[in-house]
């Protein structure tokens, strides 16, 4: 009886350690805990990168950027387009252009940071790499929500992660994962 109980506890522990990241990702589709509204700072788009403030975020190569005749930047993804706003600075390089831009007057732009409701232990990282690693991990998300007065909206969500260290608390992992982009026209 005791052996069965110990085996059940060991099985549940293994399921928790290896299954929690998947359960957390599934739960995150429905609910995350908002941590902060972050400052936007500089906005710049390049091929494969979106710069918000001082941090570079991955962007899918399939995203197309077009500067129109009114000097406004338009982003196209999955057959939908969204006009971001006036270009304030750009490069003349046709191979690797960059566009620094601002929001149109009247646009509501917020940059949100949230995390999973669920975190999970990571003892296997400590064993495998034999270097100081976080003892817990959780998913985090950085989301730009851009709303036009016309009702059009853009949402870009970058998945990321945090690791917990006893000495310093939760720290960023700085993963470079392509975002989910949702455009409503």
Explain what you see:
- This protein is α+β, with helices and mostly antiparallel strands and 185 residues long.
- Helix content is 18%, strand content 47%.
- The chain has 2 helices and 14 strands.
- The strands form 2 sheets. Strands 1, 9, 10, 11, 12, 13 and 14 form a 7-stranded antiparallel beta sheet that branches.
- It is elongated.
**Oligomerization status of the protein chains:** single chain
The largest sheet, given as strand count, sense and whether it forms a barrel, is: 7 strands, antiparallel
SS strand fraction: over 45%
Runs in which pLDDT lies below 50 for 5 or more consecutive residues are: none
What is the end-to-end distance? 62 Å
Provide the helix percentage.
10-25%
Annotation, overall tally of beta strands = 14
- Large-scale geometry: elongated
Structural class: alpha+beta
How many H/I helical runs? Answer: 2
Radius of gyration: 21 Å
Averaging pLDDT over every residue, what do you get? 88
Give the ordered list of helices and strands.
HEEEEEEEEEEHEEEE
